[in-house]
Model the fold of this input.
Amino acid sequence: MKLIFEKSQAGRRGGELPKHDLPAAKVPDALRRKTPPRLPELAEPEIVRHFTELSTRNFGIDTGFYPLGSCTMKYNPRVNERLVMLPGFRDLHPYQDEDGSQGALELMWRLQEVLIEVSGLNACSLQPAAGSQGELTGLMLMRAYFADRGEGDTRDTIITADTAHGTNPASVTMAGYKLAKVETDARGNVDVAHLREMVDEHTAGLMLTNPSTLGLFDEHIEEIAEIFHEAGALLYYDGANLNAVCGISRPGDMGFDIVHINLHKTFSQPHGGGGPGGGPIVVRNKLEPFLPVPAVVKDGEHFKLDYNRPKSIGKVRGFTGPFGVFVRSYAYIRSYGPRLREMSEVAVLNANYLLARLKESYDLPYDRLAMHEFVLSARSLKREHGVSALDVAKRLMDYGFHPPTIYFPLVVPEALMIEPTETEAKETLDEFADAMLAIAREAEESPALLHEAPHARPVKRLDEVLAAKRAIVKYGFDDHPDLSAAPQEPRQLEAQKGA
Amino acid sequence: MTASESYPDDLKYHKEHDWARIEGDEAVLGITWFAQDALGELVHYEPPNEGDTIARDSAYGEVESVKAVSDVIAPLSGEVLEVNAKVVDEPETVNDDPYGDGWLIRIRLGDPSEADALLDVAAYKQVVAES
Amino acid sequence: MSYLSLTERDRGEMLAAIGVSSVEELFRDIPKAVRFGRELDIGSALSEQELSRHLEELAARNVDTSKELSFLGAGIYDHYVPAVVDTVLQRGELLTAYTPYQPEMSQGVLQAIFEYQTVICELTGMDVSNASGYDGTTVAADACFVAKHATGRTKVVVTEATNPQVRQVVKTYAPGFGLQVVEVPHRGGATDPDELRAAATDAACIIFQQPNFFGVLEPAPDLAAAANDAGAIAVAHVDPISLGVLEAPGAYGCGMAIGEGQSAGNYQSFAGPHYGFLAARQDFIRRMPGRIVGETLDVAGERGYVLTLQTREQHIRREKATSNITTNQTLLALGGLVYLSWLGPQGLREVGETCMSLAEYAKRRLAEAGVESVFPEWPTFKEFAVRAGRSAKDAIRTSRERGVHPGYALGRDYEGLDDALLVAVTERRTPADIDRLVEALAYR
Done:
């Protein structure tokens, strides 16, 4: 399909503005724009059609089943979209006086309170914009905490698991820490013996996802927490997989000191094709003084923004946080109330049901009950029929499903990481399982069908090598390169997609 | 055209899948067939600067495919005399000809005796077999 | 209210298939001591009607810009958001998609991001844009990280006339990045290029804002030149709404352009979610944080779009990544793309000109009423600072009693400006609205 720029006609326009009978303001010549930006020039009907056409070339949770592991693609309630558009929320300026933003501040305060309860910890900051920023904020808290105790120079290392999301090690570097990696044992838990060897006076903390990216609850979590706390170090909980344990087991009760919660996963902020998200963090009392500003506090019946925190790490983003995300997630939590436990139970039930239906046809690297997601491997399919996890993923598209996360976690070869979430009907799970089983048979009988998949999407497999080599990252207008001169091989790679 | 698997007899090898061709007090360095095969088609080569000093067992550059990035480890210490500009422009040259046109840098050896610690082809093939 | 589909019968069949007798048994790997033994105390479950009523009551207690005439800005602005933005952003296929990891399932979002990147490059005069950052503050920290690695230097310079929110976030990030932050004071509302040149020695980058926090038009080309003279990367923090009127940072020597996208296509929404943009010269493409979409072909030779140059990113390069960012603000950036497409180049220029002429009108009328500009010697864009003739806090209070929020109290961030208000005038205000502002501020 054409780019919007290729539909543009000079002189055509969409919106118009009110006209006032006022003199034009003068812009100094040196600062005035010389060449107008080549924005699209379309009338409004064509704009609507363009973006509607784009939407038909996209797949969302509204379109169908989306078992992208570690991404918690659950239904996004429509009432939340209506509520976030209430003028009292939508048109509120962040510098409105406190007496003119009591409703918004109360909502934020209430969200802080429920996240504290869900986490089993003591104090919350809603500020981080996403999970990865929550991680970075958590690590900054560790720095501030240890600096305050005079241990800032000694404790310079953070331990992460070899199953960790890539954000964990990247956040460690951005926070100025050294990284150490602990291995996974044969049951898919953290290798505690290895961990014991690693933890010493230089250890600032551990970052752990529990259940892990393998979808397994770490059976030694109490022992792990003890190792770190005895060493005077802190435990950070990557909340990417919180959807497994809401109301069932709380990170604070597991021994974690800092938690981030992905509001766009567990609490249903629609992910919008890549964002927005929300990554609030919740901490133990001893870390509260270091939390980013502002926090919302309740003073009698009045709610206010508290900036006066002398030990705070400062601001991690602008203003008061992604409020619209708070509205949707608060609404989601209040819909369920204590039934959040049932939400997690059904997420785990759905995952285990799918696992039970698929484990005979795909390799299962860790044969345990899963939590909210599980990891299969296409290793045998690859060895026996030359069909990779990538091929399975592409073929699933022909059956009308979004593929699972593939090639992650890194410790599982040919990984297929499947997270159905709680909002799917049994029929949907069965249809997906039937498709996966059919694909396993196709791998044996007609592998070409898989290698050439997808057959029924707007595009076939795309050449990622060409994209990286040519790096065409914007439209070039009259000078736009024509790639079609040299037809390419299908060079799409067996690399991580998802998580 | 991607090369087929080979490990020339006249090269010295490093277990991190790098090779050295020693020519008097200079050496040409590159990555082995095994390394380029594991990475896939290269799309970027981040070379050192000419004149830089590189140290044995340390990274002197990076090669990237679409799915992976890898440090290139120096099998020998020395001063960088020349960077292969052809690979900078066309990184896939390494896939096509890892031991010929796909060389990465030429160095002046810092300590010629280091070569004694490198693997011969038989020992390196053993490393590959165990990878 | 829940969003669950399973019936009791479903559950029974599924448990049987798994081979367990109860849901409880599925959690057997969780040690007893860390299980939660009571019900979550988070209020009872609400039906959709009850939920709506609860949130409507909260919303009603806020004084939004439909209830009160507002001249608040200071980084978040009440620009008009056309209906077409809402329409596109509510398309379920776009709203409820995850990151476009599987390009065959995501051509809509991928092409939209490619178009967004193009629009941002056109606005800023840069070569490459990422798919968005969190907001206008965190992209400044990102720019510092890029500059550090591109130059090998560990000092960053930020002008004091840059939004305090931006400066605070840069300072929060700096220690982890191993960066020192130096601020260059403003001189009468604008930055002195010579002072900046001196400060830029050994700096990785200098960040300035155009128009600056006071709404003043900085001598931006001279500031960029000062940075370049010192071998520092010039980073302009710009308002997209201004870029139909004001020169693109790429045209006056900047290496990067960053900014808060909210003014172009997002509601104020009590500060978010919005989008930050980050664009750079080609030299920095491999150091860019976050996602970038590139054009390619499919097996059949058809054009398509993919996430590209991913070896920069955390899921591949992990601890050596250019950033930890993964989730960004794609949907809000899409709002920006739709908005800027709706305006077109002519419309964008007209918005800028309209804001400016209304702001000039407001300045003149206020001055006539004895409310003088703080920095009258400098040209301004849509925002300007005035002396309220009393504490700004008082002025806000009395003015709000008359139904007008007159602006932001600059004394929150700047010494000696306790009596100063930062007044923002967007195209949504009318001359009659401005007359009300004058009346409210002139009233003692």
The beta strands of chain B are 12-14, 18-23, 26-31, 44-46, 53-54, 59-64, 69-73, 78-83, 105-109.
